[in-house]
Amino acid sequence: MKIALIAHDAKKRLMQDLCIAYRGILARHELYATGTTGRLIEEVTNLTVHKFLSGQLGGEQQLGIQIEHNEIDLMILLRDPLSPMTHELDALNLLRLCDMHNIPLATNLASAELMIKALDRGDLEWREMYKD
Description:
Strand content: 15-25%
Number of strands: 5
CATH topology: Rossmann fold
Largest sheet: 5 strands, parallel
Number of domains: 1
Number of helices: 6
Structural class: alpha/beta
Helix content: 40-55%
Order of helices and strands: EHHEHEHEHEH
Shape: globular
Oligomer: single chain
CATH superfamily: Methylglyoxal synthase-like domain
Strand order of the largest sheet: 3-2-1-4-5
Mean pLDDT: 90
Distance between the termini: 14 Å
CATH architecture: 3-Layer(aba) Sandwich
């Protein structure tokens, strides 16, 4: 499955910790991330991550295009709800696109862990029906 990983600045360390904890599961899937988040994940996990541009430089828009073309199966977007981002509209657009295209989405650590465990159990295999 193709997993998108995005973390706002205040949540980047949390994303690294999540990827360290679930490295074994994530290693069996294709990972995509905005630039800085992807680089930080690679540094601590040695996982291969396809990196788009940084979020504020258009990386979230690039991921949005992937969602629109049904090329992402699961998104983990660790948001910082207390610090508005200059590109907050891009993040909100990703939430909207996930809803429109039936992409499972986690926006906090608790839901991210549930999604990864579900992925490991095979609970998200229904996504294969949506492939071309």
